[in-house]
Amino acid sequence: MFDFFFSTGTRRRPEGLTGHLAKAFAAGSAIWVVYAAGFSRADSLTLTMTFLALMLVLTFLLIGPSPTSAKTRVNLIDWVLAALSVAVGTYFVTQADLISMRITLLDPLDTADVISASVILLLAIEAMRRTVGMGLTLIVLLFLAYNLWGDRLGGVLGHGEISYVHFLDITVFTTDGLFGVPLRVAATYAFLFVLFGTALSKAGGAQFFYNLAAYLTGGTVGGPAKIAVVSSGLYGTISGSPTSDVVTTGSVTIPMMKTMGYRPAFAAATEVAASTGGSLLPPVMGAAAFIMAEYTGIPYAEIALAALIPALLYYVPIYLQVHLRALREGLRGVDLSTIPSLGRIIKDGGLFVVPLVVISWALIKGYTPTYSALYGLAGVLGVSMLRRATRMGIADIYDVLAETSFRMVAVAGACAAAGLVIGGITMTGLASKFSTLVFMISGADVLASLIIAALLTTLLGMGMPTPSAYILAAVLISPVMQDLGIDLLAGHLFILYFAVMSALTPPVAVAAYAASAIADENPLVIAVQAVKIALGAFLIPFAFVYQPALLLKGSVVEILVAVIGAVAGLSLVAVAAEGYYRTPLGRGPRLALTAAGLLLLFGGLLSWLGALVLAGCAWVWSKAQERAPEAKGATGE
């Protein structure tokens, strides 16, 4: 059942002439995106149409129709689909000026328009099925069916009649559907930041971050797991993809943890939890954050700055749980002789910090994410040229360009799917109807509405790329938050958090499935442990909605109080989750510590007294439980 919904087409690496042509096409596509996004004066509609056509061609060349398709050969049907993508893409690009000037639903569509729109719609749906699986495809098809036949429903969900031509007019010939915000972001910000991350990794930046993490934490108790936490977080902020991060850094950290005595499930879960948080860590974060900036109108620099403290808080309980687990099981650190000295690490790769500083500087200065990414890319290329060991030649740059396009194929499919859903919701007014249903369930209570929003976002995100999960939730749920008076930035960050966390939430935890192949462990077991390790991430979004100071909104004193309370609260929750602090903790002390942690996390200064009392009770209770077996032994019982 899971395979049917979440399996994708096989990833091809064609051999021979086809492989060379596909790689050249991918590299050329990347060069075009850099030029079009950064230097061309072409309008966004033309850019988006061209980008989709390029990605469709690559999809049919590089991804087979099923998991059992040949991995090195492109079949005839896929050549036909690729040719169709070129033909229909050419039609839309050449007609872009006319499309941008037409009046929606007033200027009629001719036969060629209807045929071309139908073909590109079908191609996009097939590309989506191959790249992100049947689960998301069925969701999109359900929305499309609702657009066309929802007028037959009664009650709140019913809407006016929408003809097929009306549907195509909105979905394909406006910027509210297929060629809307998600695909436009994929063709600009997201592509350029993936290019930046690919170039940084190729030049040796990933190895630098790993070595730095190993030096800082490798020799301590539980060193291998701490290396995974730190290195995956650092790498995740430039990759922006939990699954990609797991595959890249996990291929090193998971076997290392297993060798040092960690159980396979815990080793993989640690990597999954740490990698997932990388998509929330500034300055790069992930594609969904760029879509958030475009969708809300909030500058990306403001989003990244506000997200900094919550992202750092995310790693507090993870790091502490890893430390406590190592203490309880007596797991040692790595051999210090295998870790390069700090001087050597800085000498070999310290300059790789410069591109991240450049991006941060550009965002703070108010440059658009597009130009910030280009400046960061220039920084990578400049830094790599300073040393022979990191210098990238023409062949390396060619590989980086092609690999970036390869990686963006799945993102483009997901964003196209999200655009189709947005177009349907716009046509039918479903968002306002959805708000009504949520209010009926929650009774307009803020906490109940937030819990529903968290559950729905996680549910929508299962088996789905983060950008798609965020967009679906943002369109459906953000109106509810605005009606409740929740701050726009806090509300959308709340949704973003749970969209990201869906990558590790069972039963469809895509990051856990990626880790399972490396750890040779059941993915559901990994996912359950990853949720336990990343438990704080499910609390932090609620905390910053109730405590805006965590998003740097407030005075310095308010921010300090909120941060101290959050660190202490998350630490107590982590101790309770792990059930260990110097000695194993019973159920009673763990419940008391959980309650104390929640008071510190969500309450103000007055709540700290209650938290202190509860923590003290937990300590006394645990000491009493320790002495009880000794007393029984002394009396001979």
Can you walk through the features of this model?
Among the domains are: 2-180, no CATH class; 554-626. By secondary structure, the chain is an all-alpha fold. It has a two-stranded antiparallel ribbon. It is globular, with a radius of gyration of 25 Å. α2 packs across α9, α11 (223-239) packs parallel to α13 and α20 (430-442) packs across α21. A hairpin with a 1-residue loop joins β1 (580-581) and β2. It is built from 29 helices and 2 strands.
Q: What topology does this entry show?
A:
Elements: H1 2-6, H2 16-38, H3 44-62, H4 76-94, H5 96-101, H6 111-132, H7 134-149, H8 164-172, H9 181-203, H10 205-217, H11 223-239, H12 242-259, H13 264-278, H14 287-296, H15 300-329, H16 342-349, H17 353-364, H18 369-384, H19 394-428, H20 430-442, H21 446-461, H22 466-483, H23 488-501, H24 510-519, H25 523-533, H26 535-546, H27 556-578, E1 580-581, E2 583-584, H28 587-602, H29 605-634
Antiparallel strand pairs: 1-2
Helix pairs in contact: 2-3, 2-9, 2-19, 3-4, 3-19, 4-6, 6-7, 6-19, 7-19, 9-14, 9-18, 9-19, 10-11, 10-16, 11-12, 11-13, 11-15, 12-13, 12-24, 13-15, 13-24, 13-25, 14-22, 14-23, 15-26, 15-27, 17-18, 19-22, 20-21, 20-22, 21-22, 21-23, 22-23, 23-26, 24-25, 26-27, 27-28, 28-29
Function: Part of the tripartite ATP-independent periplasmic (TRAP) transport system.
Main location: membrane
Domain TRAP C4-dicarboxylate transport system permease DctM subunit: 119-558
